[in-house]
Amino acid sequence: MYQYTGCGLENVFLKNGYTIKDTPYGKAISIDDIEGLHRAIALDILRQKTPMDGQQFRFLRKEQDLTQAELAAILGVSEQTVAAWEKQKKEPVQVMADISMRAYYMAHMQAQQAQQVFPSNAEKPVDAFSFEHDDTGWLPKAA
User: What are the pLDDT digits (tens) for 91-134?
Assistant: First the structure.
């Protein structure tokens, strides 16, 4: 079993899905589908019935590529407040911070899924939209 601390959490252990390689500089670890692993870690944090701690809060912030200042602006608190929550490491963050982070992360995940389902590759604004109906319902079609 491998303790995966590279995510910033001390309590993540991998039973498989990784390879240990010898290099000229020592042992190196290669993790399969690291994005999928981080998504699974985040969803596990969201499913917990106990308040998240500072490490988990920081992990979710970093998974959204947010700085402490950006998250502070979103939550309407100071950057120092976000830093204080994250410094608590193993202590629970404030209830409203916990609830807000869970909600914001879920919205972030939904936005990512929408981008995968509906990628934006239009090079110029679309003047008209065309739709067709079939047995499955209405579907967008190229104009």
Answer: 999 999 999 999 999 999 988 877 665 566 656 665 666 778 88
pTM (two decimals)? 0.77
What is d(CA 101, CA 105) in angstroms, rounded to the nearest whole number? 6
The domain spans of the chain are 2-121
**Architecture of the 2-121 domain:** Orthogonal Bundle (1.10)
Write 89-94 long-range contacts (CB < 8 A, 24+): 89/53, 89/54, 89/55, 90/53, 90/54, 90/55, 91/53, 91/54, 92/50, 92/51, 92/52, 92/53, 93/51, 93/52, 93/53, 93/54, 93/57
